[in-house]
Amino acid sequence: MVGRAWDWMRRQRVLVDCFFASPLLLMTLPGMFGTYPLVAPWQVALLTAGLLGPMALRRTLPRGSFAAVALVSFVQCVAGVEIIPANVAVLMGLYTVAAESSFRWGLAALAAAETGAVLAPLRYTPSLSDFRPSFLAMTAVVLGVWILGLHMRTRRAYLRSLEERAERLERERDIELQIAMAAERARIARELHDVVAHNVSVIVVQADGAWYAMDTDPGRARRALEAISATGRQALTEMRRLLGVLREGGDGTAPPQGAASEPQEGAYAPQPGVNQLPDLVEKVRASGLPVELDIEGTPPAMSQGQELTVFRIVQEALTNTLKHGGPQATARVRISYGPDTLEIRVTDDGRGAAAADDGRGHGLAGMRERVAVYGGEVRAGPRPGGGFEVAARIPLREEVRT
Fold first, then answer.
1. Which GO terms describe its molecular function (predicted)?
2. pTM for this prediction
3. Mean pLDDT, rounded, for 229-233
């Protein structure tokens, strides 16, 4: 609410400037009815219009409004018309020029205001003894207003630099995240490609077996054809997901320059799955992190792409614990198999939530990319009692995808 009001005030400059000049108008208004014995009402009205009128454009045209107010005050001093409350507009104009314009224009406005601080005591004080204190007081006020305007100008420049830096850092962070997501999509596409290639190889082998067993063993040929049908459907499903990943990544070209790529060594090795989770846990334990692995339920039939996604989520979560958990951290991996969904929960009691972020990690974004391929969701964040938690939910059937 406050931010909206502030934005509205920024847009309505003329209205806001009139509002800030209104107290001077109220103070000068009685003089228009003859309450000032030394100034005629028409003079008060004329001076008020000449001094407060330019204040409506105080921030829109700071130098022009100050020049108009200074000129009216100079003519008033030369004509010998007594000072009225509306003459404070000179100080308002001085502040605005110092705060809104360059330092040189601020110095010029200071010189003009200081000239008025000299002429006014000379014109309106009866003796030299009265001139000195009036001159010193007016000079102190003029310098104070000018310094305040310079301070506000410096502060606004500093705030603008901070805003520009924040916007630049936000743009750089978005670019880095896009690069990381593109690299992760390319990695997922390569892995799903391996899965599809494996399924096609199985289809070819089963088709050859069915061909040779068609005359001698019809039952075996029938089983081979059933395997071909199931594997073909699975390959089509994985192919759809592969094309979806490439479509989301753009035109399917290589990832942007600077994006991380998978090492080529071992590119044709079998992809890991849920059966390799105990081996992964043992490797993490050997690295010095105590890990417990709990598996609930019976593992259903899963595609290789789904098994690979489960393995990568657990791997990334344990890697984050190793990097950020601290020397005394422990972790627990819990896999729950349901009839329709698979839930993964990796928790630790380390200091990952309070660890310093170097801004180079994109593991959580990669997890979300992988799980999104299968219509799942990932939640990651600090635990209430301390530590960090990664929770993922993956639908196991197409009809329950979110």
1. ATP binding; phosphorelay sensor kinase activity; protein dimerization activity
2. 0.47
3. 74
Q: What angle do CA 321, 324, 185 make, to 5 degrees?
A: 70
State the Cα torsion 62-63-66-72 to the nearest 10°: -140
| Backbone φ, ψ for residue 347 (5° rounding) | -125, 155
Taking alpha carbons only, the member of 253, 270, 392, 256 closest to residue 335 is 392
Cβ(313)–Cβ(349) under 8 Å?
no
Instruction: Kindly list the structural domains of the chain, giving each domain's residue range(s) and its CATH number in brackets, ordered by start.
Output: 2-124 (no CATH), 181-248 (1.20.5), 274-400 (3.30.565.10)
Own/partner pairs for 195-198, CB < 8 Å, 24+ apart? 195/238, 195/271, 195/303, 195/304, 195/305, 195/308, 196/235, 196/238, 196/239, 196/242, 198/270, 198/304
Phi and psi angles of residue 84, each rounded to the nearest 5 degrees, phi first: -125, 165
- At 345, is the secondary structure helix, strand, or coil? strand
pLDDT digits (tens, 9 = 90+) for 56-103: 888 889 999 999 999 999 998 888 888 888 889 999 999 999 999 899
